[in-house]
Please model this.
Amino acid sequence: MVKFFRSILLIALLSATAFSQDKIAPPLLDAIDEAIRTNGTVHALVMLSDAVDIQTLDRQLYQQKVSVQDRAYIVITTLQQKALETQGPLLSYLASLPSTEVVKYQSFWVANMIAVEATPAVIMELSARAEVEYLQIDGILERDEPVNSAPAEMTPNGSEPGLRAINAHKMWQAGYTGAGTIVMGIDTGVDGNHPALNYKWRGTHVPASQAWFDPNTGTNFPNDCDGHGTHTIGTMNGLQTSTSDTVGVAPGAEWIAAKTLCAGTHTSASIAAFQWAMDPDGNPGTTDDMPVGIGNSWYDPNIPSASQCNPAQNPYINVLTAVEAAGIAVVFSAGNSGPSASSITSPKNVNIDEVHFWATGAVDGNNPAYPIASFSSRGPVVAACSTGVPSLDIKPEASAPGVNVRSSYAGGGYQFLDGTSMACPHVVGALALLKEAHPGKTGHELKMALYQTAVDLGAAGEDNTYGMGIIDVWAAHESLADPNDPNDPENVTAYSDYTTPSSVLLNWTDPTTYVNGDPLTNFSIEIFRDGALAASVASGLETYTDLGLNDGQFYQYTVFAKDNNDSLSGGVDVSAYAGGSPVPAPPTGLAATTTTSDATLTWTDPTTQSDGTPLDDLDHINIYRDGVLVGNVAPGVETYTDAPPPGFFYNYTVTAVDNETPPNESAPSNAAGGFVGSAPSYLVWVGPDAVGASAASGDSLFDALVANGQSALLTNNLFEFGTDLSIYDGIFVVLGIYSNNHVIASGDPEGAALNTYVQGGGRIFLEGGDCFNYDPETGGYNIRPWFALNDGPDGSGDVSGVTGLNDLSAFSFTYNGDNNWMDELQVAGSTPIWKNSANADISGVFNVGAGGVGLGRAIGVVPSFGGFVDSPEPLSPRRRTMENYLPQPPLATETIKPRPQRGERQPFVKKAAWYPERKGEINRNELYRITPNGIEMLANTKEDLMAAYLELFGVGGGTDPEITVEPPALADTLLTGSNATHVLSISNTGGSLAGDLVWNISENPAVTWLEVTPAAGTTTANQTTEVSVQFNAGGLSAGNYSTTLEIASNAANSPLVTVPVNLLVSDAPVMVVTPETLDVTLPPGQSTAETFNISNPGVGPLEFAITIEGVAAANAKVDIIR
Model:
């Protein structure tokens, strides 16, 4: 019945809208159906009919042997021109519609399409337009999640076994590290501060917009929402220089990245990332900004099988072909759904040639036999896309190490991960090594070399398990060299500085042999500048000065050796600015020293430009606080004192600026910072060994405190301001969940200091998975007395959600944090405030008089604060009753999980902030509404929960509010159609120290003729709020009407005040006499005249008569004055 009803809705809408159903993908039709039912919008990709035949163009460019640089320019500009010529009418149409119909749209040129979020009616109207070829759903992407994860240590002076498995070390020995190339990942982001990656980010010397793409949140510095992206980029080029710990295939390469795989990412976000990668600097004439390869560890479950091999219906075919046509290699992980056949997911489960949609299988690189991982997805391609050509139907293309792969991870440390996501970046790193050695080759040609030289594994020949086998980058390199070609020139350099503003000096060492080892005698050196031949230099000279250049312009050179048979060596790329780089190098060695009022910075001024050439025109040094320019100093000063608002942790950077017009500014220096101000009110202490999501819970607590207007510092040093903790209004302790936790040992000074703090009446919040029961029994500090707890079992059921009890009874949260060995709290005098939603286990308590002192207050919670999932939707009005919270014995069949391996300590980023004005912005009325039926939570977020925790801590103090309402009743008489307004005064009469009076007004019964404004509010101590009460007789017939205003509040004297309200509505004459009485006293013989008024505010004529009673007629008379 439901399905039938939804079909009627869809048919009804279609009948009123011109549309072409055969141009709409089935999943999009389903989305339209759902949007009609829910009155929602639809995300669609509108694919235009008039599109560049990119496959044909790609073939033509290979046939014509177009250079890599010219190829990129031709492809990009051809695609851009097509979009410019054809999208105008459609974009104008979308722009003409209101935002209620078209929420947003985005034009693409990488393929001729437009992404649209709009109502179902608009989507169907688009299908009827002649220029529209097809509409595909703009669905949600999924990540190829790692199969296993474990923390890893650094390996000083070492490299990973998987790197040797693909012979990357042989390329290093030959001098190839990927230098001069760029690798890229489309993933969850990258930790831009990781020591193995931070200096390799291209954004250190070009604008961030050319090195970091974040279409969803718009950040301008690399960050990682998961850790996955940091791991994959690390495998491409990670190297921690301080320890010589190599985790990357191409440690000399730079990296750029797109953060598009966090929650709710649509297909269009990854398409936007591919388009950005083709031209990060916005100049199609440059190629030094383009990556050699792009790693992808995700899939799109939304493209139907019937559409996956049709370029008109599958947007990825033309998008990825365009990227490859521009010279960039696209590489995917095969997926982690093996060992089932045809388990490789879209978009890499199709092929148009042997390597175009490259999917990478995972082998165990730690085992010399390189066995396939059981989870590695298998081929062949989906049946609907079979070409009948075996080499095109087999999947994956090849394999690489993907089991127990160690690489960088968000937070500054390292992690072992399993998955084809780990295999894919090995291929991208190998491409970077090959690109350095063979710069004239496209990414597609380099992939083909890896494909053709892979070491066969498994069944003989290419198969649907290993593909061609494990890649061998050294063999691929050798295959690209023609034995009859000259070897490359060596030691090629290009140099220019301010003394030679119009020339560049090139030097090199001539080759002496062919690739096959034969002697090379008759040859010349061919020098290409920006893709065009600049000079042919005879052998033996080994130097050339390129003249007539423009000062400050960047030039790219490729140097070849050419023999007398026109055989060319591989090209060696170098580059230089004429006159030296126009941009100064950044200052170095920035350090910060902070006090209660200021921060003093010191650094060393640069002496060179960014390319290492001499700097002769330094003008000043700019000082930035948290990214905002706050001052500058002259060269040579090398110090600056800043006095920012106290109460914050500040990060500073400095830049160098020259005296050119316009001036050139360097990249930022290293960051340095510290806390400015007196000790904050609240300390959030994250135990130094807490890592990952457990440590991130400290950030969540810090953010919630700051949002509530509190001064807070986030640190991993409990004694940041000394060992006397009594200076804090409260301390929030984050110990974390095993194995990412910190243990306070019985002899650690932190345990004793916190105990002294609690004994002295301090307020403490402490969270930890097994710190209450397990740790005290295995050498940890016994914190149970702080929370009035007995010992209890550890290893309770996982927490998927928590339900509030007692003081927190109106709260509930789902939970997605770490979930190992969650203690069951055994109450021995404290009040339960959280229980596991799945059972009766107590997960949190509140203890008044902690440590035996009346002022001490302690909150102990097992799950991490950061793992609570915000739900801004109001909860139902209720006050939950106390539930049975006695611990339950484990079931006989319950299996206790083994304790996981402990993680390693990670670098920590300190933060502090204070926005006292937010205390005024946040009041109880924003947190809950008091009704006669109980409390209604207005929101259920961590920010609101923090407000409740602060209430438990007694922050604010004061007496209870009291309520006075005037007048006690309201009444009026109105003619039909008229209205009148009265004022109701609500006063907080609890005294000057009273807390806020939170109230709301409801009608009992609800009526249509009364309007109360405002219907809810907060009245501070000794203040009065005036409420407008409007009577409206419009549409009412004559008669008496009544209701009662019920004013519910948190007042101690009267939580519920009632005000009777009466309305008389008339549609007949109404006599009103004013005044109602006349009193006259006269001495004998005197007379007087008094006047009274008779009015008729009613409807129709008023007939009346006046009689005089009790007075002789001769002594009184009445005259009517009209």
